[in-house]
Each structure stands twice: as structure tokens, then as C-alpha cells.
From TrEMBL:
This is 50S ribosomal protein L35. GO terms for cellular component: ribosome. The keyword Transmembrane helix applies. The chain crosses the membrane at residues 12-32, 39-56. Keywords: Membrane, Ribonucleoprotein, Ribosomal protein, Transmembrane, Transmembrane helix. It comes from Pseudosulfitobacter pseudonitzschiae.
């Protein structure tokens, strides 16, 4: 996990995990209404969960629910000019 944390900090991992998780919900619903197995959605949920777990483990003291909006602001501010 040391190599990954060099390129991916905990705030970015948390934001990516939440966004990927939220974006996979319509795919799950679409697959279930069509009667298909949501295989691709399951993979994206797994990736989102792993990113969130990575973020919680690498952030000193972990995250609380109140820290999530602050993480979004920090990550968005990092990429805004």
C-alpha cells in the first residue's frame, strides 16, 4: 500500500470512491430491471469500496461523516485554477 499512497492521497481516494459508488447505482438498477446480472456494476462497487477503505485506513484518525464534504471541497479546490 505504500506505493499507492505515493500517488493517491486519502481525500482523493475517498472522493473517487464515493463518486464511483454513486455512479454505479443507475447501472445496477438498469441491469436488474432488464433481468441481467449486474456484473460490471458489482466490479465498480468493489472498486469504490476498496478506495473508501484505503482512504479510511490511510487518513490519520479515519474519517467521520462530517469530514466527507470537506474532503470534496479540498479535492475540487486542488483541481480548480
Amino acid at each position: 500500500m505504500g506505493e499507492l499512497s505515493k500517488y493517491l492521497d486519502s481525500d482523493l481516494a475517498l472522493v473517487l470512491g464515493v463518486v464511483i459508488g454513486l455512479l454505479s447505482i443507475p447501472s445496477i438498477l438498469s441491469a436488474m430491471t432488464d433481468g441481467r446480472a449486474p456484473r460490471a456494476s458489482a466490479v465498480t462497487i468493489l472498486i469504490a469500496g476498496l478506495l473508501i477503505i484505503f482512504a479510511i485506513q490511510t487518513h490519520p484518525g479515519g474519517y467521520s461523516i462530517g469530514d466527507v464534504p470537506n474532503a470534496f471541497v479540498v479535492v475540487v479546490a486542488r483541481f480548480m485554477p
